[in-house]
Amino acid sequence: MKTRGRGRPRAPPPLRRGLRRLSAPAPRGAAALARPRGRHLRERRPRGRPPGLGRVRRRDRRAPRRPGRPLAAEARAKGEAGEALAPELRRLGRLDPGLVHSADLHRLRARRWELEAPIRIAVLHHPVSPLPTITDVAPYAGLINAGAVKDALFDRRFALVLHGHQHAQWLGEERWPGHAAGDHTLRIAAAPSLGSREVAEQHGYNEVLILREGDRHEVEVRTYTRSGDTWSRGPASLGPFAVE
Question: How confident is the model over 69-92, as pLDDT tens digits?
Fold first, then answer.
C-alpha cells in the first residue's frame, strides 16, 4: 500500500449524508403511508382466500366433558336412568287417543254437502262411540272429542260412519232428539280385523252397498265373518235405509 508523509495509510473518504439516513428510525403514521417504497406496504393475505378473509376456526359446540368422570360411569348412569323410566314409557305407550282437529270440523260444517254429495259417509280410524263387544283396556281408546265430531256429522246429515282401531265388528245407530238437524239417524259400522294372529276377535269385514233408483239413494251394510277357511254372512246388518 502506498503511503504518504509519515507512512500512515490514507483515511477513507467521509460518508455522504444520504447514506447516514439509512440508520435513522422509520417514519410513522401518515408519513409512512405516503411512502409506497418496496414491498413493505403490500397487504399480506393467505393464498386461495379472497382479500380481507382470514382463517375461520370451527367452534366446537360439544359440551366439555366433566373432569374425572370416565365413560363407563357415564354410560352406566344413562342405563340406570333408562331402566327407571321404562315402566312409565310403557304406560304412556298404551295411551292412544284420537282427535279430529277443530279446523277440519270447521271445514266440515262450512261445506254444502247436500248440493255436492247426496250420499255422505265419514271414514275415521278411532271409534266415535264405545263398543260393547270388548273392554277398553287402553285409556282414551276412542276420540277425545267424539261429541263434537258427531255433532258436526249430525249437523251436515251424514248417513254413515266407518271406523276401526279396536278390530271388533259392531253396528249401531244414534239419534239426538232436539238436535238442530231434526230427526236424523247416524249409523256406525266398526270393522274387524281381516286377518291377524295378534287379535282374539273373529276375523271378518263389512260390505257397504249403495243402491240408486232415479234420485233416490239407499245404503245397506252387511257383515261377514270367517270360520276356518270359509266366509259366511253375519246376522247383523244395517238397512237398507234411505239417504235423506
Answer: 555 566 566 666 667 777 776 766
